[in-house]
Give the backbone structure.
Amino acid sequence: MSRNVRRKPATLTDVAATVGVAPMTVSRVINGNGYVSEETREKVLEAVKKMNYRRNGLARNLKRQKTETVGLVIGDISNPFSTELANAVRESLSFRGYNLFICISEHSAKEDIAAFDSLVDHNVDGLIVATRSNEEGDERLSEIADSGVPIVVVGRDFKHDSVDAVSADNFNGGFEATQHLIDLGHKRIGFIGAGFENRSRLKRLQGYLAALAKHGLSVDERLITGRKGTSDDVPGYSTESIGYEGMKRLLSLPKRPTAVFARNDFTAVGAISAVKEAGLSIPQDIAVVGFDDTPLALHTMPPLTTVRQPMKIQGQLAAEMLLRRITGEVEPEAEEKILDCELIIRESTVSQV
Amino acid sequence: MSRNVRRKPATLTDVAATVGVAPMTVSRVINGNGYVSEETREKVLEAVKKMNYRRNGLARNLKRQKTETVGLVIGDISNPFSTELANAVRESLSFRGYNLFICISEHSAKEDIAAFDSLVDHNVDGLIVATRSNEEGDERLSEIADSGVPIVVVGRDFKHDSVDAVSADNFNGGFEATQHLIDLGHKRIGFIGAGFENRSRLKRLQGYLAALAKHGLSVDERLITGRKGTSDDVPGYSTESIGYEGMKRLLSLPKRPTAVFARNDFTAVGAISAVKEAGLSIPQDIAVVGFDDTPLALHTMPPLTTVRQPMKIQGQLAAEMLLRRITGEVEPEAEEKILDCELIIRESTVSQV
DNA sequence: CTGTTAGCGCTTTCAA
DNA sequence: TTGAAAGCGCTAACAG
């Protein structure tokens, strides 16, 4: 029917002109504030419909100096970790009338920066960042924070005197996972998923080391493995292959471990595959612990013992902290919240009776 | 250090004033076009840094009449279906210099509309919509299309004379899945995941029915099951419970089916749980087929036979069609692309030798 | 190489 | 109840 050629969209002024009123009157009708006679209102609405008028949010927000929109940057959308976070954030925000725009930055600092910029360019009222930190990205983030944009980071290293942070207690989670294995009598416990660059920053690994130390177990470097040479910052299911390869390496050691703690559930799943392939059984020959309690963990054979981190609460908290900053209800000092994890014991460490 | 009180951010004019040049000159430096003397450039950049200046994208885009941003609306971010789509779309777009904003609309028409509006309010150059269709949402989408915004829908019922559509061939996928079971000799084949309202619209179910018809198998209404009374439009992993309950119902029939086709992999996973719980084995007692080939499908016990739909290609295609519309390279007539699915045979239907 | 003018589409403010 | 004026922050187009 209507040949929808890309004509210029109608503006407020266009509508006003065809109705024969001032733009301001149309504005009042559209936004439902101020007094407009019933008669005019109807004429305006009719014209609006006829002309397919839609208000221009850019102009509107430019004038109003706010967008009621928050940006969320996540690193890997296929990771249940990110998606739970996104859902929790969205829910908390919509409750307060804010919209959420999500940007994905999968691979590089360049994408991080592009995501930050595009969101800030649209004048989001605030930013929640849950990507893995990297130098250039952090630099840009600092600039943005300096320019006055409220920011909260989730599960991410980043320091700035006006940026709040939320994270799970990864150190303690790693500690408890390892402790659990030690309690079961394991003495040779491997760690899968630690690259070489990020060991000091990987809290889960630090927790593992601390647990070993506490129980007087010596650290065997050969039992700590990860993707060689390259960064571990590969997204999503590809960490499954890290787990697979890592476990193969551990199994080929002269004295193989009797248990492993995998950096996350994907890694654990890969590790499990390698164990099975070697004809060994879990947990009798090798016990496996993961991290995150993704839905996958329930469906591995055997079901995976793992550390659950409270994603929903992290999301809610991040949203709340950000809104407080946006509405200016909060002191300028940065705040940091660290939330407890919970060990979920399943049959990959304790065989059923 | 710098007490970051929420002061008004610096504008182009502010910077120009402190440097003592015209705003236009600063603009040229910021955007790197036009000639500016090295000396001026440096002075400007210095002031920019000192004043934490960031350009106002709203004003910029208002003037330029484009944002180089595309909006994607998905229904359920925890579904691998959506995330693969999002990744493919993002990749194709970034290749052409476009940014992607993702909005989630999980539950209702109201959220659909909110997502559409917020994206359009930010003047995205185009919209990709992959939520499940519903009446009010469709109405708003039509208005938006009428107002001239380029739109592509993915895997979604929607008709409009300027809106392109991409989808997988769900009918044929359902047909092949069922055909596979028939080929294996099954005569009583159940379908799990069909509510009552949406049966006619559920192409996978229609394919199932067609396959039965083709082979002269009668349709037994009791073998078609789903969540009773309510809509099936419940997001994500909750369809697992639909599968579980549905399978329980089928197993309790006087003459139970020897195979089932589940509406999607999540449903299939739930069905598998129910079968195991009943002490039956797969595929000997009950064969199970899913749909989507999510990562989960590899990790069920036994691995799941399923129908893979080409999400990546759907995403790429959607992005390309949209960009063509945005740049006006395309005729106004709506186009529809339907892509082939592929049956992936695993051990949930064919036991290993 | 740099500046001036005008205006994107809307809303705030004040006046009628 | 309605309108006029001004300007949000930026850039295209032209002038110098």
Summary: Chain A touches chain B through 64 residues (CB under 8 Å). The domain at 12-61 of chain A is CATH 1.10.260.40 (434 Repressor (Amino-terminal Domain)).
